[in-house]
């Protein structure tokens, strides 16, 4: 064997040594990779190893991977408002406004414990398939919404827990604890988020420019801040989201008063703050408080906003430039990044899944029987009976015949509300009622639309393309409608497609990152006005003969009406250009045809021989929601311009009443409806909210007496729109039960099928010091013939408090009582139950004096009794 030259051997030995050294370095564990260290220690070590550019990207909600340090991609934006949102095969619970009507924070905890189980199972199922973390499929969930529902016109009020600070606080804390898991666990189950901080409740159309400079300190601390404080101090919430608008000239995401003095100094919050999506960009595009992205980014970070969310073009990626300009120091960035990284370490994001117990939750947990039962239980408890003339309810299952009418009777997506996932199955109101009746005793007709006083006769059957009827659908597995075609199909009915439940638009078409072109031609037989009705989630453009009729890009399904005049004999080329965008679930719907007037005469004829009508109407998520680019009569951008029931439904109810029918109105809405006329035209009114996947079953159970309703209103139902005031005025004067009694149905109100009597109460102490607590004890008697649940409510008012609330909720308890029996209720009143804003100290305080303690089953004075307590 030929010997190697000495020089060559030395080179070989050096290379070998270098290789072994490299392997050893790679095998060596950095301190930030050591799960035995605390999250704080790990975050501190990692920050030392990052470049300034890497730090900036880790503060974006879509955080890029850092391959050299084995840091994977992470997304901060997922939703879990009432189920793991924007995902299929999950459990969809009632909207929060409905769950608030249960006054059951214990059940709410169980629900969000289930939600976090499903989120973990969905996330790890996705990751274990070799996918990356993405928007809406992550372990950070921007829930709950604890804003005060101060004005019933706000389209997002359905996401909240109502108009009362105490109820919102109790429900919000239960949500956070259910989502984040046990406080003593090594890893957080999820990271919850208190939003939108602060003083935010519409209108949607001006939230990016709105400046609130008339909110006095008392209203700020007594109304708008208590829930956030409770979630921080009691719930240990790990994220707070700052809102879009300005408060006293400062954007909320750039407010040192909100983010530093109140949140961190007064309340002791130590975790991270995230921006609402696009809020930092608003600094220079809408609020005009910053000149450009660089100045906006530095202002936001210095104020205390740690994670920025935006659709694209992150101002936070300009932070290195801000450092160069001297606008911010790298140590300021490190301060924010520390909180960001601690959040990820607390989730176990940097550790192997085998070490994280939550990562072992199997996909079989998704929509299992236990979770379905929770959805049904909460739907039942949310239902609120507002009127029951002559005890028409519960209905008999032996009625000769019952008609089910109304636009929401068969509408399954309506039950999901907004910010929702897609359930495995949904029980509509129609199908729920069907389970109670024989086929020959049941009649159904939609009756009318939600808003439109016309119905559409579809002309799609008169359309054709390339010699085939209907629309030609062409699909590409990219978002640009370029390259090889993935599939072509023909659609001969109104278009209605979704990827919910992992459904493809067509065989061979991906669930994400695809685009479509729908083409057809229509030859008008006569000159007339026609309409397109529909919309999409994603990039949507409707063209007629090359002219754009409607174009937008949105993350939720938005339906609207688009009118067109056609001339006899003329051909019209109709195109729909569509693309699934970002991580949004793909949906598209479209019908085309002629509108004709609703004919109530025809409907009444169909009801001959039927005495009892269940009318399922109200609103839906297509009408009220977040910053919607389409509007309807009475609606603007997702908000409402009035709170009356849409006239088409009001007229239908009137026609039914005039025909001599007994009308049970099931009102589905996420907000209060002015039901003054409906109290005359309807024999019974059941407020059903958006009741989730089992809503139809729950509604049927209540209508037919298989469940005794116990829900109580978490918001006031006003008589009409006349006294609502300026939507953009955040003063509480004349708003909510705490500052007005001029309502139709008061906060805390709800009927039962039985009768409850609340006895005289006693206080464990009728004179206490400022730091002491007391208990109120009372007896609830069920004097009726049906088992039921009463919700006892306790309110407090400080005597001689001139500008304070009329009363404010400070305690509640659900009391189950069997027919003919009594039960005792004991409700704790902690010292802070008597805390109000003290103008002399300029802060919240318990001050000496006399206080009135009201107790009963609604906020209405006639439903309350009173005892007094003295604080020394």
TrEMBL record:
One of its GO terms (molecular function) is xylan 1,4-beta-xylosidase activity. Pfam families: Fn3-like (PF14310), Glyco_hydro_3 (PF00933), Glyco_hydro_3_C (PF01915), PA14 (PF07691). Keywords: Hydrolase, Signal. InterPro entries: BXL (IPR044993), Fn3-like (IPR026891), GH (IPR017853), Glyco_hydro_3_C (IPR002772), Glyco_hydro_3_C_sf (IPR036881), Glyco_hydro_3_N (IPR001764), Glyco_hydro_3_N_sf (IPR036962), Ig-like_fold (IPR013783). Residues 466-608 form the PA14 domain. One of its GO terms (biological process) is xylan catabolic process. Residues 1-27 form the signal peptide. It comes from the Bacteria. Belongs to the glycosyl hydrolase 3 family. This is Glycoside hydrolase family 3 protein. It comes from Labilibaculum euxinus.
């Amino acid at each position: 064997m030929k010997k190697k030259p000495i020089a060559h051997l030395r080179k070989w030995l050096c290379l070998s040594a270098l290789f072994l050294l490299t392997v050893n370095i790679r095998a060596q564990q950095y301190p930030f990779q050591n799960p035995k260290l605390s999250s704080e220690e790990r975050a501190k070590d990692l920050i030392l190893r990052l470049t300034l550019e890497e730090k900036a990207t880790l503060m974006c909600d879509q955080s890029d991977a850092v391959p050299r340090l084995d840091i994977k991609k992470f997304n901060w934006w997922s939703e879990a408002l009432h189920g793991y949102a924007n995902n299929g095969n999950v459990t969809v619970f009632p909207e929060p406004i409905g769950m608030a009507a249960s006054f059951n924070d214990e059940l709410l905890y169980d629900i969000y414990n289930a939600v976090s189980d499903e989120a973990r199972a969905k996330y790890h199922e996705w990751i274990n398939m070799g996918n990356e973390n993405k928007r809406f499929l992550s372990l950070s969930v921007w829930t709950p919404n604890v804003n005060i529902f101060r004005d019933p016109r706000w389209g997002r009020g359905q996401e909240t827990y109502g108009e009362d600070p105490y109820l919102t606080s109790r429900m919000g804390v239960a949500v956070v604890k259910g989502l984040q898991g046990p406080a003593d666990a090594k890893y957080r189950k999820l990271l919850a988020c208190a939003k939108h901080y602060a003083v935010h409740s519409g209108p949607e159309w001006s939230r990016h420019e709105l400046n609130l400079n008339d909110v006095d300190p008392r209203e700020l601390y007594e109304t708008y801040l208590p829930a956030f404080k409770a979630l921080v101090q009691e719930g240990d919430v790990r994220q707070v989201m700052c809102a879009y608008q300005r408060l006293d000239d400062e954007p909320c995401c750039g407010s040192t008063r909100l983010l530093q003095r109140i949140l961190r100094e007064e309340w002791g919050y130590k975790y991270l703050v995230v921006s609402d999506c696009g809020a930092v960009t608003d600094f220079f595009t809408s609020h005009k408080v910053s000149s450009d992205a660089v100045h906006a980014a530095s202002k936001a970070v210095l104020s205390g906003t740690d994670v920025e969310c935006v659709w694209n073009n992150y101002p936070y990626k300009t932070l290195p430039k801000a450092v160069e300009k001297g606008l911010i120091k790298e140590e300021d960035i490190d301060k924010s990044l520390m909180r960001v990284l601690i959040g990820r370490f607390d989730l176990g994001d940097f550790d192997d899944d085998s070490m994280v117990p939550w990562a072992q939750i199997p996909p079989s947990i998704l929509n299992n029987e236990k979770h379905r039962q929770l959805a049904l239980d909460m739907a039942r408890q949310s239902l609120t009976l507002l009127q029951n003339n002559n005890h028409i309810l519960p209905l008999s299952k032996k009625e000769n015949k019952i008609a089910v009418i109304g636009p929401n009777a068969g509408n399954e997506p309506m039950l999901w509300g907004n910010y929702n996932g897609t359930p495995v199955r949904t029980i509509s109101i129609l199908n729920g009622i069907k389970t109670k009746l024989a086929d020959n005793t049941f009649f159904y007709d939609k009756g009318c639309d939600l808003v439109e006083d016309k119905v559409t006769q579809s002309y799609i059957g008169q359309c054709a393309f390339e010699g085939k009827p209907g629309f030609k659908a062409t699909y590409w597995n990219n978002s640009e409608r370029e390259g090889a075609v993935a599939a072509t199909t023909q659609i001969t009915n109104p278009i209605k497609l979704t990827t919910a439940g992992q459904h493809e638009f067509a065989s061979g078409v991906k669930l994400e990152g695809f685009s479509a072109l729908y083409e057809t031609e229509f030859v008008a037989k006569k000159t007339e006005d026609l309409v397109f009705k529909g919309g999409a989630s994603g990039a949507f453009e409707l063209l007629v003969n090359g002219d754009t009729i409607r174009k937008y890009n949105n993350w939720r399904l938005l339906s609207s009406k688009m009118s067109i005049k056609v001339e006899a004999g003329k051909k019209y080329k109709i195109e729909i250009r569509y693309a699934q965008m970002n991580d949004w679930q793909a949906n598209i719907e479209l019908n085309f045809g002629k509108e004709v007037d609703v004919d109530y005469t025809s409907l009444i004829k169909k009801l001959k021989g039927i005495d009892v009508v269940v009318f399922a109407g109200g609103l839906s998520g297509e009408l009220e929601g977040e910053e919607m680019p389409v509007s309807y009569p009475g609606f603007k951008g997702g908000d409402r311009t009035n709170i009356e029931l849409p006239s088409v439904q009001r007229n239908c109810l009137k026609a039914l009443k005039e025909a001599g029918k007994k009308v049970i109105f099931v009102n589905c809405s996420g907000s209060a409806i002015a039901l003054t006329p409906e109290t005359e035209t309807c024999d019974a009114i059941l407020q059903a909210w958006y009741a989730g996947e089992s809503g139809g079953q729950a509604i049927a159970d209540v209508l037919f007496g298989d469940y005794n309703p116990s829900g109580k209103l978490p918001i006031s139902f006003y008589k009409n729109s006349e006294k609502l005031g300026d939507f953009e005025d955040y003063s509480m004067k004349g708003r909510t039960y705490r500052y007005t009694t001029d309502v139709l149905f008061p906060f805390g109100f709800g009927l039962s099928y039985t009768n409850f009597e609340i006895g005289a109460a006693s206080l464990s102490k009728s004179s206490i010091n400022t730091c002491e607590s007391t208990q109120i004890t009372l007896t609830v008697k069920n004097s009726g013939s049906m088992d039921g649940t009463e919700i006892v409510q306790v309110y407090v008012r400080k005597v001689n408090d001139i500008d304070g609330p009329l009363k404010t909720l400070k305690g509640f308890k659900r009391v189950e009582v069997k027919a003919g029996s009594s039960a005792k209720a004991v409700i704790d009143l902690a010292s802070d139950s008597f805390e109000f804003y003290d103008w002399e100290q300029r802060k919240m305080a318990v001050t000496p004096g006399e206080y009135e303690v009201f107790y009963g089953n609604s906020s209405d004075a006639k439903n309350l009794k009173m005892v007094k307590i003295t604080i020394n």
